[in-house]
Specification:
The complex is a heterodimer of chains A (440) and B (723). Chain A has 440 residues and is an alpha/beta fold. Chain A has 20 helices and five strands. Chain B is α/β, with parallel strands linked by helices. At the A-B interface, helix 11 of A face helix 17, helix 18, helix 19, strand 16 and strand 17 of B.
Chain lengths: 440, 723
């Protein structure tokens, strides 16, 4: 989106972007200022978002190498979805957060999703109460317009929820929130929100607090998401976008039965979404090629999924990319694209004012050359650290007036990024690099 | 409690409990362990005999601390090798923890799920667990472990001596290390152990990294009652066949002496175990009484063994188990009235451990040995004439009384356990990089002998076997076979019940035998009173093909299946030299003793380490099996027809002069490494996961375990001068 270069950037947005990038995480806002390439992919997902708003559903697997920018991409789509009036929820999967489990891990995932629930006005998450509040406001509006009581409107609206699996209790809980609202019962309201956020761990507690017999638990994760999508519609949003990242954690599950159960959930979601039986809901799942392709442990090991997710053989033959298929492959950034990215970063740093650029174009090329020398082609394959180093460089330049960029570039430290689930362990002596580049 | 200073440092709740017990004073070790444990800044080894109050010595101060400063989550992690012991400790700790309002949770395969769930929901207090269950928790509930162990104050290991030098001990070291890594904090370890020879060794084994100092608290009251009897039985040997009447005699005595109480009876092979058990059961049936004798060995089904273990734990019925000697750690039986040995024990450590199971309730430990030796004839083998089985028993008892125990074989690789731990760590974290695995397990962990290059090769072999695979970003994850492996509960256990070899000759199955010694082609083994030559060994099927071998009468006793230590053989030599008859021998055993001494003196074995009888020479180094096995392989490599039984090396068709020349030429040649010698061995699959290693790695591990090149070299140099 290099065309946006002329546009000024608000200071708050600028600071958020810089802070996030320096910490090595994807910024929540202002992504459009730094986004590079992937125009077709963004277009494809824009269509998905439109479809969700129109009452349809979508399912996408975003597949890319470690560090290729999946998370960035998912965040970008999420931000677009928020702009388009959807509610977005997102979570990273982990050994303790899965789609299917018996030991509370699926509920953990749901709870994490609910912690991150965002709307356009609350893009940083934790928007559950505002969603519920808006539901009530909408009901009020309707009540005023049609001169009905709010109670009646709410119970009418909730009837549609009750028809779905587990909907009765869901509706009951929303009703309880309304009751709490009316009676100024803060405890009841917060209990209802806790229930909706899957924070109740036992049925007994839920029954005592709210009078419902079920809780959102491991086995009804997907059903609850469907209910939520319907609920956000009732609250006046256009639909629900569910972003699930780090799906490779399912691939890494060491128990085959557990893994297959999770894949079955994916299949169920995929079937629902692609057959159109789900409404106003979209799923984007980010994962590495291993997660998809591994014939023994990946999604492809599950026959039913393989046939549904297989690449469009015809498109491949004629050499085009099919952007409508449920799997979307993110190509790595090319070195040229990384250069544009650095330019964008420089632009953000200067708050969109070209006259305040801290370094000339020449410095960008030299910086990339320096990185390439340090860590080889990892500098553009996994650009996170390159970006981090560049932002650090710019920050240093900004603070230390009188510093000259050409003297700093050689001192920039870039580390090759390595992925692991285990904390690093340091040994004082005899450490050699023999196993760092290990391959079987 | 007037003069006890430690007592007043304890939490009032604990003081109250001690008053309730009506103890007049704390015992010596209990008093001395209060300060070191309360300070929680060092490891502690508490060593005393059974029933000296070790458990309280550890738990009183440990509980006191976690009640004073309640930690977040579990405060004390207690690891025990036996489920029976956990159940026992659970009962004992309950009254204490009731007063302190502390949660105690036993955690092993037989514990009710509801108890575990309670602990899972709200981790806290004391967790009593086996290494296998702990492995399982780390493997599949790492997230929970991180939460639950966050505030852990102590790790207490019971029966620590049972772990030393074993696969399971290595697993334990690795588990403790992994927990510390998981919570990024060093936790004081407390080991409860029987008194062992070199206490520094124990401290070293408890924390190889030495990151905390270790305080050793040894009981000063060394009194532990022990009653020993050695009964001799004469076995007839006619027409090259062993008479079976002797086993009837022995079982008659076993039945007469042991019936009505609970005992453990040890025999050397499965066949013998079954035979003794069935003969004892026959006698019960004959007398119309309920059978109380049951076999317990590796080929029995798990259900059968467990039901027997349950019978021991839960009922008051008298029960005796007849076990194979190799199944030391596999027997989950708490305490019994006495121990019976139907064959000579193979190590003092295991004898000590068995005795630890007897006399727990404060009674004296009782050991009875029922030893059959052959009636002598002019054809009798030197080993029979020396009555070596009897002397081995005596030597072991002597060493036991001197409180000497076999130190663990140092510099062991434990590669099989490394396989287990590698897979377990990968499963615990999901995806791990090779260098991290190495740093955790080898660089800072218990597998310090493995360098990065070897570990790389090791991982590649695991990759070839489908145990692990690598993702595109370089992380190691479990392969499909690795997954299946860890999915099964048997994976949690680091050791295998050793399998017996099946013996076949010309298509006939002869039987089965436990062999824990290096096997080479053309080597002799003794089975069913005959000598056999090994023609081939199939490591996968554990099958040995044999040919009947001509020449000479084989000895009855070949030195037990397991490795006998140098010091034991040295002690045997000094028993022969001194010739004092121990008091615990019965009449027949005394005769054996005298016959053995007579033979020893007649052959002047005191002075000559080698004698020639006919065309065969017998060399008596009076050294352990690691050296004699090494020697044996070296001689065979040199082209000599060497065999070794019972620490005696036999070489056929050679003179003493020729032998002298042979060792001269070995000494002049290059000194091989243990792994070089292991290349000569047919079957190097010993430990549980050895089949996942490359041949080279297996040989490395095998060599370190079975051979002592330096020892053999030293002995040969001495021999060169003395013969």
């Amino acid at each position: 989106m290099a065309s946006d270069q002329a546009q000024r950037i608000r200071p708050r947005e600028r600071d958020t972007i810089i802070q996030s990038l320096r910490a090595g995480v994807t910024p929540r806002t202002g992504l459009q200022h730094i986004q590079v390439g992937r125009v077709r992919e963004v277009e494809a997902l824009l269509k998905d978002i439109e479809r969700i708003s129109d009452g349809g559903s979508s399912f996408r697997l975003v597949i890319g190498e470690f560090g290729s920018g999946k998370t960035f991409f998912l965040q970008l789509i999420r931000n677009i979805a928020l702009e388009k009036g959807l509610v977005a929820i997102h979570a990273d999967l982990s050994p303790d957060r899965r789609l299917h489990a018996t030991g509370g891990q699926a509920r953990n995932l749901y709870a994490e999703l609910m912690r991150n629930i965002s709307t356009r006005t609350k893009p940083e998450g934790n928007a559950m109460s505002s969603v519920v509040e808006r539901f009530i406001t909408e009901a009020r509006k309707q009540a005023d317009k049609e001169s009905l009581t709010v109670d009646m409107v709410i119970s009418n609206r909730l009837i549609t929820l009750s028809e779905l699996v587990g909907g009765y209790d869901f509706a009951h809980v929303v009703g309880a929130y309304w009751k709490g609202h009316e009676q100024d019962d803060e405890q009841l309201k917060s209990d209802a929100l806790r229930w909706l956020r899957a924070e109740f761990t036992t049925k007994t507690d839920a029954r005592n607090a709210l009078g419902v017999r079920t809780i959102i638990d491991d086995f009804n994760l997907y059903d609850s998401l469907k209910l939520l999508s319907l609920f956000v519609r009732q609250a006046g949003y256009n639909g629900l976008l569910v972003n699930l990242d780090e799906m490779v954690n399912l691939y890494k599950l060491s128990n085959q039965t557990a893994r297959v159960s999770n894949y079955e959930q994916i299949l169920r979601i995929l079937n629902d979404c692609l057959q159109g039986s789900a409404q106003h809901i979209g799923f984007i799942m980010g994962g590495t090629p291993d997660f998809l392709f591994d014939p023994r442990k990946g999604l492809y090991s599950y026959e039913a999924l393989q046939s549904r997710l297989a690449e469009n053989a015809f498109a491949k033959k004629v050499g085009v990319v099919d952007y409508t298929s449920p799997t979307l492959h993110l190509a790595n950034l090319a070195p040229e694209e990384l250069l544009i990215l650095l330019r964008n970063l420089r632009h953000v740093f200067a708050s969109g004012d070209p006259s305040k650029y801290l370094v000339p174009d020449e410095a960008l090329t030299l910086f990339l050359a320096h990185c390439s020398q340090r860590i080889g082609d990892a500098y553009f394959r996994t650009p996170r650290n390159t970006i981090k180093a560049f932002v650090d460089l710019l920050s240093t330049l900004e603070q230390g007036k009188g510093l000259v960029w050409s003297q700093l570039i050689d001192q920039v430290q870039v580390k090759e990024e390595i992925s692991t689930d285990m904390p690093e362990i340091s040994i004082e002596e005899n450490e050699t690099d023999e196993l760092v580049k290990f391959s079987i | 409690m007037g003069e006890s200073s430690g007592f007043y440092k304890l939490h009032p709740g604990i003081q109250k409990w001690i008053w309730n017990q009506r103890w007049t004073a704390l015992r010596d070790i209990q008093e001395r362990s209060i300060e070191p444990i309360l300070s929680a800044d060092r490891d502690v080894v508490i060593s005393a005999s059974t029933a000296a109050g070790k458990t309280e010595a550890a738990f009183l101060p440990a509980c006191s601390r976690i009640v004073d400063r309640p930690p977040n989550g579990i405060g004390v992690l207690y690891i025990s090798p036996l489920k029976a012991l956990i159940n026992d400790q659970y009962r004992r700790l309950q009254s204490l923890c009731d007063i302190l309002n502390l949660q105690v949770t036993p955690w092993h395969g037989d514990v009710l799920q509801s108890k575990k769930d309670k602990q899972k929901k709200k981790p806290g207090g004391i967790l009593l667990i086996t290494p296998e269950s702990l492995e399982s928790l780390l493997l599949s509930n790492a997230g929970w472990c991180q939460q639950a162990f966050k505030g852990l104050c102590y790790v207490i290991v019971d029966e620590f001596h049972a772990f030393i030098g074993t696969e399971r001990g290595c697993q334990l070291q690795s588990l403790m290390h992994r927990i510390e890594f998981l919570i990024q904090r060093i936790i004081p370890r407390i080991a409860l152990s029987a008194t062992l020879g070199d206490m520094e060794n124990i401290a070293q084994y408890l924390r190889p990294s030495k990151k905390l100092p270790c305080e050793i608290i040894e009981s000063t009251s060394l009194r532990s009652d022990l009653k020993i009897q050695l009964r001799g039985y004469v076995s007839q040997f006619l027409d090259d066949k062993e008479e079976t009447t002797v086993i009837d005699e022995i079982t008659d005595d076993l039945y007469r002496i042991l019936r009505g109480k609970s005992h453990l009876i040890f025999a050397n092979s499965r066949a013998k175990t079954e035979l003794v058990a069935s003969k004892l059961a026959e006698r019960c049936e004959r007398d119309g009484v309920l059978n109380e004798f049951f076999p317990h060995h590796g080929s029995l089904s798990k259900e059968f063994r467990e039901s027997l273990e349950k019978r021991f734990q839960e009922t008051k019925l008298p029960t005796s188990a007849i076990c194979t000697m190799t199944l030391e750690l596999g027997i989950d039986i708490g305490s019994v009235d006495s121990i019976a040995q139907v064959t000579a024990p193979h190590s003092v450590t295991s004898l000590r451990q068995r005795l630890g199971r007897s006399g727990r309730r404060g009674d004296a430990a009782v050991l009875r040995m029922f030893i059959a030796e052959r009636e002598l004839s002019d054809k009798s083998h030197l080993i029979d004439r020396l009555r070596m089985e009897t002397f081995q028993c005596i030597a072991m008892v002597n060493l036991l009384l001197k409180k000497w125990y076999e130190p663990p074989v140092s510099n062991q690789y434990h590669l099989s356990t490394l396989v287990q731990q590698t897979l377990s760590v990968i499963a615990q974290y999901g995806g791990v990089r090779a260098n991290q695995l190495w740093s955790l397990l080898c660089g800072t962990g218990p597998f310090s002998l493995i360098d990065q290059t070897s570990y790389g090769n090791f991982l590649r072999t695991l990759g070839q076997k489908g145990m692990i695979t690598q993702t595109q970003d370089g992380q190691l994850v479990l392969g499909h076979k690795g997954e299946n492996l860890i999915d099964h509960f048997t994976f949690l256990c680091a050791f295998n019940t050793p399998e017996e070899y099946r013996l076949e000759s010309n298509g006939h199955v002869l039987g089965s035998l436990p062999i824990d010694k290096p096997l080479m082609i053309d080597q002799m083994i003794i089975f069913a009173g005959k000598k056999w030559k090994v023609t081939s060994v199939d490591p996968k099927k554990k099958l040995i093909m044999l040919q009947p071998a001509p020449g000479g009468h084989p000895p009855k006793f070949d030195g037990a299946a397991q490795t006998v230590h140098n010091i034991v053989r040295q002690e045997m030599l000094s028993v022969y030299r001194q010739g004092t008859i121990p008091a615990y021998l019965d009449k027949v055993a005394k005769e054996f003793f005298e016959e053995g001494i007579e033979c020893f003196n007649a052959l002047h074995l005191d002075k000559s380490p080698a004698i020639q009888i006919g065309s065969t020479i017998y060399i008596l180094p009076w050294l352990g099996d690691r050296i004699t096995s090494t020697q044996n392989v070296l001689l065979r490599k040199e082209g000599l027809k060497a065999n070794s039984y019972c620490g005696i090396i036999e070489v056929e068709g050679i003179s003493i002069k020729g032998f002298h020349d042979a060792i001269g030429s070995i000494l002049n040649g290059p000194k091989p490494s243990p792994a070089d010698l292991a290349m000569e061995i047919q079957d190097t699959f010993v430990e549980k996961h050895d089949w996942m290693l490359s041949k080279e790695m297996r040989e490395l591990g095998y060599g370190a375990r079975f051979f002592d090149i330096d020892g053999a070299w030293k002995w040969m140099s001495v021999m060169m001068k003395s013969i």
